[in-house]
Amino acid sequence: MSSSVADAPDLSGLIELSRDPAIDLKPVILRVQTDLFLAAPVHDRAILQAFESLAAGLIPTVDAETVRIVAEKLGGCPDVPAAVRAALEARGFPVDPPREPESEAEADHALAENPGALIGTRTLERLLARARSDADLARTLLARPDIPPADLAPLWLHAGPEQRRAIAAAVEVTAALRPCPRPPRTLATTLVERSHGRDIQGFITALGEGLGLPENYLGAASDPTARYDLLTLALRTADLREGEAVFIFLTLNDTVARSVDRVFSLVTLFRETDRATARDLLCAILGAPVLERAGGGEYQPFHGPEAKRSAASSERGGLRPALPSRLRRTS
Protein backbone atom coordinates (compact mmCIF):
# COMPACT_ATOMS: atom_id res chain seq x y z
CA MET A 1 0.00 0.00 0.00
CA SER A 2 1.24 3.46 -0.85
CA SER A 3 2.60 5.39 2.13
CA SER A 4 0.30 8.28 1.23
CA VAL A 5 -2.71 6.04 1.77
CA ALA A 6 -1.26 4.19 4.76
CA ASP A 7 -0.62 7.50 6.54
CA ALA A 8 -4.11 8.86 5.89
CA PRO A 9 -6.47 9.25 8.90
CA ASP A 10 -8.72 6.27 9.62
CA LEU A 11 -12.27 7.38 8.79
CA SER A 12 -13.80 3.92 8.94
CA GLY A 13 -15.77 4.91 12.02
CA LEU A 14 -17.34 7.88 10.24
CA ILE A 15 -18.10 5.77 7.18
CA GLU A 16 -19.81 3.17 9.38
CA LEU A 17 -21.89 5.90 11.07
CA SER A 18 -22.86 7.30 7.68
CA ARG A 19 -24.77 4.09 7.02
CA ASP A 20 -27.11 4.86 9.92
CA PRO A 21 -30.27 6.35 8.32
CA ALA A 22 -30.83 8.51 11.40
CA ILE A 23 -27.46 10.26 11.04
CA ASP A 24 -26.31 11.93 7.84
CA LEU A 25 -22.53 12.26 8.03
CA LYS A 26 -21.93 12.18 4.30
CA PRO A 27 -21.48 15.99 4.05
CA VAL A 28 -18.96 15.91 6.90
CA ILE A 29 -17.01 13.04 5.34
CA LEU A 30 -16.94 14.77 1.95
CA ARG A 31 -15.68 18.05 3.37
CA VAL A 32 -13.04 16.32 5.53
CA GLN A 33 -11.81 14.24 2.61
CA THR A 34 -11.63 17.35 0.43
CA ASP A 35 -9.50 19.14 3.03
CA LEU A 36 -7.20 16.12 3.37
CA PHE A 37 -6.84 15.89 -0.40
CA LEU A 38 -5.88 19.54 -0.72
CA ALA A 39 -3.44 19.31 2.20
CA ALA A 40 -1.61 16.27 0.78
CA PRO A 41 1.98 17.26 -0.16
CA VAL A 42 1.90 14.95 -3.19
CA HIS A 43 -1.11 13.90 -5.23
CA ASP A 44 0.13 10.48 -6.29
CA ARG A 45 -1.99 7.85 -8.02
CA ALA A 46 -3.19 6.29 -4.76
CA ILE A 47 -4.35 9.64 -3.34
CA LEU A 48 -6.13 10.55 -6.58
CA GLN A 49 -7.90 7.21 -6.86
CA ALA A 50 -9.00 7.21 -3.22
CA PHE A 51 -10.39 10.76 -3.41
CA GLU A 52 -12.08 10.15 -6.75
CA SER A 53 -13.77 6.98 -5.53
CA LEU A 54 -15.16 8.60 -2.37
CA ALA A 55 -15.95 12.13 -3.60
CA ALA A 56 -17.54 11.13 -6.91
CA GLY A 57 -19.81 8.75 -5.00
CA LEU A 58 -20.83 11.24 -2.28
CA ILE A 59 -21.34 14.41 -4.36
CA PRO A 60 -24.64 13.23 -5.93
CA THR A 61 -26.03 12.37 -2.46
CA VAL A 62 -25.24 15.47 -0.36
CA ASP A 63 -27.02 18.81 -0.06
CA ALA A 64 -26.35 21.69 -2.47
CA GLU A 65 -24.60 23.83 0.16
CA THR A 66 -22.02 21.10 0.79
CA VAL A 67 -21.48 20.71 -2.95
CA ARG A 68 -20.93 24.48 -3.29
CA ILE A 69 -18.37 24.47 -0.44
CA VAL A 70 -16.46 21.53 -1.96
CA ALA A 71 -16.44 23.15 -5.42
CA GLU A 72 -15.03 26.37 -3.98
CA LYS A 73 -12.37 24.50 -2.03
CA LEU A 74 -11.25 22.63 -5.14
CA GLY A 75 -11.27 25.73 -7.34
CA GLY A 76 -7.88 26.33 -8.96
CA CYS A 77 -6.47 22.93 -7.96
CA PRO A 78 -4.85 21.37 -11.03
CA ASP A 79 -5.13 17.77 -9.75
CA VAL A 80 -8.90 17.40 -9.27
CA PRO A 81 -9.88 14.02 -10.78
CA ALA A 82 -12.03 14.21 -13.90
CA ALA A 83 -14.84 12.18 -12.31
CA VAL A 84 -15.03 14.61 -9.37
CA ARG A 85 -15.15 17.59 -11.73
CA ALA A 86 -17.94 15.93 -13.73
CA ALA A 87 -19.94 15.14 -10.58
CA LEU A 88 -19.70 18.73 -9.32
CA GLU A 89 -20.63 20.15 -12.72
CA ALA A 90 -23.65 17.83 -12.87
CA ARG A 91 -24.86 19.38 -9.61
CA GLY A 92 -24.47 22.86 -11.06
CA PHE A 93 -21.20 23.80 -9.32
CA PRO A 94 -18.33 23.54 -11.82
CA VAL A 95 -14.82 23.74 -10.42
CA ASP A 96 -12.79 26.82 -11.40
CA PRO A 97 -9.92 25.83 -13.72
CA PRO A 98 -6.32 26.16 -12.48
CA ARG A 99 -5.06 29.73 -12.65
CA GLU A 100 -2.49 30.21 -15.36
CA PRO A 101 0.81 31.70 -14.17
CA GLU A 102 1.13 35.36 -15.02
CA SER A 103 4.81 35.09 -15.88
CA GLU A 104 7.60 32.58 -16.40
CA ALA A 105 9.00 33.53 -12.98
CA GLU A 106 5.69 32.70 -11.31
CA ALA A 107 5.56 29.39 -13.18
CA ASP A 108 9.07 28.56 -11.99
CA HIS A 109 8.12 29.32 -8.39
CA ALA A 110 5.04 27.09 -8.67
CA LEU A 111 7.12 24.28 -10.14
CA ALA A 112 9.79 24.53 -7.43
CA GLU A 113 7.15 24.58 -4.68
CA ASN A 114 5.47 21.43 -5.97
CA PRO A 115 7.18 18.55 -4.12
CA GLY A 116 5.68 16.02 -6.51
CA ALA A 117 7.10 17.65 -9.64
CA LEU A 118 9.97 15.85 -11.32
CA ILE A 119 12.54 18.47 -12.34
CA GLY A 120 14.65 17.48 -15.32
CA THR A 121 18.18 18.65 -16.06
CA ARG A 122 17.28 21.50 -18.43
CA THR A 123 14.46 22.70 -16.20
CA LEU A 124 16.77 22.65 -13.18
CA GLU A 125 19.36 24.71 -15.07
CA ARG A 126 16.70 27.33 -15.80
CA LEU A 127 15.50 27.38 -12.20
CA LEU A 128 19.03 27.69 -10.83
CA ALA A 129 19.85 30.53 -13.23
CA ARG A 130 16.82 32.44 -11.99
CA ALA A 131 17.42 31.52 -8.34
CA ARG A 132 20.88 33.10 -8.33
CA SER A 133 19.15 36.48 -8.05
CA ASP A 134 15.84 35.32 -6.55
CA ALA A 135 16.30 34.55 -2.85
CA ASP A 136 12.80 33.08 -2.40
CA LEU A 137 13.23 30.67 -5.29
CA ALA A 138 16.71 29.80 -4.03
CA ARG A 139 15.38 28.89 -0.58
CA THR A 140 12.66 26.74 -2.15
CA LEU A 141 15.15 24.81 -4.28
CA LEU A 142 17.58 24.40 -1.38
CA ALA A 143 14.76 22.85 0.67
CA ARG A 144 14.00 20.16 -1.93
CA PRO A 145 15.50 16.81 -0.88
CA ASP A 146 15.50 15.49 -4.45
CA ILE A 147 18.19 17.89 -5.74
CA PRO A 148 21.76 16.63 -5.07
CA PRO A 149 24.11 19.01 -3.24
CA ALA A 150 26.47 19.22 -6.23
CA ASP A 151 23.65 20.58 -8.40
CA LEU A 152 22.92 23.26 -5.80
CA ALA A 153 26.40 24.80 -6.10
CA PRO A 154 25.04 27.92 -7.92
CA LEU A 155 23.01 28.66 -4.77
CA TRP A 156 25.91 28.28 -2.31
CA LEU A 157 25.62 31.93 -1.21
CA HIS A 158 21.96 31.38 -0.24
CA ALA A 159 22.60 28.17 1.72
CA GLY A 160 23.06 27.81 5.47
CA PRO A 161 26.34 26.64 7.05
CA GLU A 162 25.56 22.91 7.03
CA GLN A 163 24.26 22.94 3.48
CA ARG A 164 27.25 24.99 2.32
CA ARG A 165 29.56 22.35 3.69
CA ALA A 166 27.58 19.60 1.95
CA ILE A 167 27.68 21.47 -1.35
CA ALA A 168 31.42 22.15 -1.04
CA ALA A 169 32.09 18.49 -0.21
CA ALA A 170 30.16 17.40 -3.30
CA VAL A 171 31.96 19.91 -5.53
CA GLU A 172 35.35 18.89 -4.14
CA VAL A 173 34.91 15.36 -5.50
CA THR A 174 35.16 16.55 -9.11
CA ALA A 175 36.99 19.89 -8.72
CA ALA A 176 40.44 18.31 -8.66
CA LEU A 177 39.78 16.58 -11.98
CA ARG A 178 40.03 19.88 -13.88
CA PRO A 179 43.29 21.80 -14.28
CA CYS A 180 43.49 24.76 -11.91
CA PRO A 181 46.16 27.11 -13.30
CA ARG A 182 47.84 29.58 -11.01
CA PRO A 183 46.84 33.22 -11.35
CA PRO A 184 49.52 35.87 -12.05
CA ARG A 185 52.09 35.70 -9.24
CA THR A 186 51.91 39.45 -8.75
CA LEU A 187 48.18 39.29 -7.94
CA ALA A 188 48.58 38.51 -4.22
CA THR A 189 51.02 41.37 -3.73
CA THR A 190 48.73 43.77 -5.61
CA LEU A 191 45.71 42.77 -3.51
CA VAL A 192 47.61 43.22 -0.25
CA GLU A 193 48.82 46.65 -1.35
CA ARG A 194 45.33 47.75 -2.43
CA SER A 195 43.85 46.56 0.86
CA HIS A 196 46.57 48.29 2.89
CA GLY A 197 45.86 51.50 1.00
CA ARG A 198 42.11 51.17 1.56
CA ASP A 199 41.62 51.23 -2.21
CA ILE A 200 38.46 49.13 -2.27
CA GLN A 201 37.57 49.73 -5.91
CA GLY A 202 41.14 49.07 -7.01
CA PHE A 203 41.15 45.87 -4.94
CA ILE A 204 37.88 44.63 -6.50
CA THR A 205 39.08 45.47 -10.00
CA ALA A 206 42.48 43.81 -9.54
CA LEU A 207 40.92 40.65 -8.14
CA GLY A 208 38.35 40.44 -10.94
CA GLU A 209 40.92 41.00 -13.68
CA GLY A 210 43.41 38.60 -12.10
CA LEU A 211 40.88 35.73 -12.07
CA GLY A 212 39.07 36.67 -15.27
CA LEU A 213 35.78 37.29 -13.41
CA PRO A 214 32.76 39.08 -14.89
CA GLU A 215 32.92 42.86 -14.50
CA ASN A 216 30.20 43.07 -11.84
CA TYR A 217 31.00 39.82 -10.10
CA LEU A 218 30.13 41.11 -6.62
CA GLY A 219 26.56 41.61 -7.83
CA ALA A 220 26.12 37.84 -7.57
CA ALA A 221 25.84 38.36 -3.80
CA SER A 222 22.54 40.20 -3.47
CA ASP A 223 22.88 40.07 0.31
CA PRO A 224 25.69 42.45 1.38
CA THR A 225 26.68 40.11 4.21
CA ALA A 226 27.42 37.37 1.67
CA ARG A 227 29.80 39.49 -0.42
CA TYR A 228 32.76 38.77 1.82
CA ASP A 229 31.99 35.06 1.54
CA LEU A 230 32.20 35.46 -2.23
CA LEU A 231 35.41 37.48 -1.86
CA THR A 232 36.87 34.75 0.35
CA LEU A 233 36.27 32.14 -2.35
CA ALA A 234 37.94 34.48 -4.82
CA LEU A 235 40.94 35.02 -2.52
CA ARG A 236 41.31 31.26 -2.10
CA THR A 237 41.14 30.85 -5.88
CA ALA A 238 43.75 33.60 -6.24
CA ASP A 239 46.15 31.38 -4.26
CA LEU A 240 46.70 33.79 -1.38
CA ARG A 241 48.36 32.53 1.75
CA GLU A 242 46.29 32.48 4.91
CA GLY A 243 48.26 35.36 6.43
CA GLU A 244 47.62 37.49 3.36
CA ALA A 245 43.92 36.73 3.47
CA VAL A 246 43.72 37.58 7.17
CA PHE A 247 45.55 40.86 6.53
CA ILE A 248 42.92 41.75 3.90
CA PHE A 249 40.07 40.86 6.26
CA LEU A 250 41.57 43.21 8.86
CA THR A 251 42.36 46.15 6.58
CA LEU A 252 39.97 46.33 3.64
CA ASN A 253 36.77 47.07 5.55
CA ASP A 254 36.48 48.43 9.09
CA THR A 255 33.04 46.90 9.68
CA VAL A 256 34.38 43.41 9.02
CA ALA A 257 37.63 44.04 10.91
CA ARG A 258 35.77 45.09 14.08
CA SER A 259 33.82 41.81 14.22
CA VAL A 260 35.94 39.00 15.64
CA ASP A 261 33.24 36.44 14.83
CA ARG A 262 33.01 37.59 11.23
CA VAL A 263 36.76 37.50 10.68
CA PHE A 264 36.93 34.07 12.31
CA SER A 265 34.15 32.72 10.05
CA LEU A 266 35.93 34.05 6.94
CA VAL A 267 39.25 32.55 7.99
CA THR A 268 37.52 29.23 8.66
CA LEU A 269 35.96 29.30 5.20
CA PHE A 270 39.36 30.10 3.68
CA ARG A 271 41.02 27.20 5.54
CA GLU A 272 38.32 24.61 4.85
CA THR A 273 38.00 25.25 1.11
CA ASP A 274 40.75 24.04 -1.19
CA ARG A 275 41.64 26.16 -4.21
CA ALA A 276 40.09 23.93 -6.89
CA THR A 277 36.82 23.71 -4.95
CA ALA A 278 36.77 27.48 -4.43
CA ARG A 279 37.33 27.93 -8.17
CA ASP A 280 34.44 25.60 -9.08
CA LEU A 281 32.12 27.20 -6.53
CA LEU A 282 32.91 30.60 -8.06
CA CYS A 283 32.17 29.23 -11.53
CA ALA A 284 28.81 27.90 -10.37
CA ILE A 285 27.82 31.02 -8.41
CA LEU A 286 28.75 33.42 -11.21
CA GLY A 287 27.65 31.18 -14.06
CA ALA A 288 30.91 32.08 -15.80
CA PRO A 289 34.39 30.59 -16.24
CA VAL A 290 37.08 31.48 -13.71
CA LEU A 291 40.85 31.57 -14.32
CA GLU A 292 40.40 30.69 -17.98
CA ARG A 293 41.31 34.19 -19.11
CA ALA A 294 43.84 34.89 -16.37
CA GLY A 295 47.50 35.20 -17.22
CA GLY A 296 46.94 36.00 -20.89
CA GLY A 297 49.23 33.22 -22.13
CA GLU A 298 49.75 29.51 -22.04
CA TYR A 299 49.90 28.11 -18.54
CA GLN A 300 53.34 27.05 -17.41
CA PRO A 301 53.75 25.00 -14.19
CA PHE A 302 55.75 27.07 -11.72
CA HIS A 303 57.37 24.10 -10.03
CA GLY A 304 57.95 21.94 -13.11
CA PRO A 305 61.46 21.18 -14.41
CA GLU A 306 60.76 23.28 -17.49
CA ALA A 307 59.64 26.31 -15.47
CA LYS A 308 61.51 29.51 -16.24
CA ARG A 309 62.29 31.70 -13.26
CA SER A 310 63.60 35.19 -13.45
CA ALA A 311 66.95 36.02 -11.84
CA ALA A 312 65.25 38.30 -9.34
CA SER A 313 62.81 35.54 -8.41
CA SER A 314 65.67 33.09 -7.95
CA GLU A 315 67.53 35.48 -5.69
CA ARG A 316 64.47 35.94 -3.50
CA GLY A 317 63.77 32.24 -3.49
CA GLY A 318 60.35 32.89 -5.02
CA LEU A 319 59.10 34.56 -1.87
CA ARG A 320 56.54 37.35 -1.87
CA PRO A 321 57.33 40.61 -0.17
CA ALA A 322 56.54 40.74 3.53
CA LEU A 323 53.12 42.06 4.49
CA PRO A 324 53.10 45.78 5.19
CA SER A 325 52.71 46.64 8.83
CA ARG A 326 49.28 47.87 9.74
CA LEU A 327 49.33 51.54 10.64
CA ARG A 328 48.14 52.37 14.13
CA ARG A 329 45.49 55.00 14.19
CA THR A 330 45.92 57.84 16.66
CA SER A 331 42.49 59.38 16.20
From TrEMBL:
Residues 297-331 are annotated as: Disordered. This is DUF2336 domain-containing protein. It comes from Methylorubrum zatmanii.
